[in-house]
Amino acid sequence: MIWWMTVAALLLPALMLGFRFTEPRSAFWFDTAALICLYAFGILCFAAVANTIIEGAESLTEIHNLFLSPVWLTSGGYLGVYVLYRSWIDLFRRYREM
User: Fold this and answer.
1) So what's the pLDDT on residue 73?
2) CB within 8 A of 85, min separation 6: which ones?
């Protein structure tokens, strides 16, 4: 499992980067997807904390429910890949400026 996650962490940002240079409009959609995922990620975290405070729920139970949410996992996974993709863009941009 860790092997596939490592390969995906290397391959997906590289594919996004290549697609960005072959189809420049894709950068807008990558950024839009990241913004949507960021909102979903934040709202789910907020809801878990609010539920813990308002209802007096057990915080560890709420956190584990959050960790099992498919929306939270998907948005967090995309944000991880997106951050790597943006890091590569920044690295290439700085290299060209040298």
Assistant:
1) 93
2) 12, 13, 16, 17, 20, 30
Give residue-wise pLDDT tens across range 47-59. Answer: 888 888 888 877 7
Q: Residues 56-96: pLDDT tens digits?
A: 877 787 888 888 999 999 999 999 999 999 999 999 999 99
Distance CA 72, CA 64 (A): 11
Split into its structural domains, the chain has a count of 1
Domain membership of residue 6 as a residue range: 2-97
82, 32 Cβ separation under 8 angstroms = no
Residue among 62, 71, 81, 65 nearest 43 (CA): 71
